[in-house]
Recover the amino acids of this structure.
């Protein structure tokens, strides 16, 4: 399309009679050529935008698959942590019951700390302490699980939002560039129609 515009101008420059008839003939050729150029550039830009959109969809699918696999590994790890904590709590409770039994039958050493003695003296409070400790650690594990899930999704969303924003800016700039280019051609056509072709082209 660009060579067509140049060919029209060169054709006019090589023939003085065509310069005189610019308004009647050459102008009618330039305007459709400029419009055809704009249409073709917009068509190419629309095609490019569609290609970018398809690429983003594919990228989103891939990154979601990667994130899903990674999340599955983390979930397995968290489940293992919960199981370990439950097992630890169960062992602590059994050891605590043994300690309580030794304390109450007098077989426990006499030099235990006073604070432990007070705690062992209240069996219900001792058992509740172990249970509360277990619940506290489970809550921390669950909180980390939720934090990971949220942060992971936020990271993915941030990446995709950045890509989409950059594409919107790029697409808008390209449309503006096409409009500026064709507007410049139209302005030059108007100038030539008003003032004639430049001496350098005659």
């Amino acid at each position: 399309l660009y060579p067509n515009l140049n060919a029209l101008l060169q054709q006019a420059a090589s023939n003085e009679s065509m310069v005189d008839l610019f308004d009647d003939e050459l102008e009618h050729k330039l305007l459709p050529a400029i419009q055809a150029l704009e249409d073709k550039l917009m068509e190419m830009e629309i095609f490019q935008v569609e290609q970018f959109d398809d690429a983003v969809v594919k990228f989103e699918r891939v990154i979601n698959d990667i994130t899903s696999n990674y999340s599955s590994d983390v979930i397995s790890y968290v489940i293992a942590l919960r199981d370990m904590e439950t097992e630890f709590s169960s062992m602590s409770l059994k050891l605590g019951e043994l300690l309580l039994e030794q304390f109450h039958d007098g077989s426990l050493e006499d030099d235990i700390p006073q604070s432990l003695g007070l705690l062992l003296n209240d069996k219900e409070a001792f058992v509740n302490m172990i249970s509360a400790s277990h619940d506290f650690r489970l809550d921390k594990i669950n909180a980390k699980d939720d934090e990971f899930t949220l942060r992971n999704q936020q990271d993915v969303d941030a990446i995709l939002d950045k890509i989409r924003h950059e594409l919107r800016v790029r697409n808008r700039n390209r449309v503006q560039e096409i409009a500026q280019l064709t507007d410049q051609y139209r302005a030059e056509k108007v100038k030539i129609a008003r003032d004639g072709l430049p001496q350098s082209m005659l």
In short: The chain has a mean pLDDT of 83.
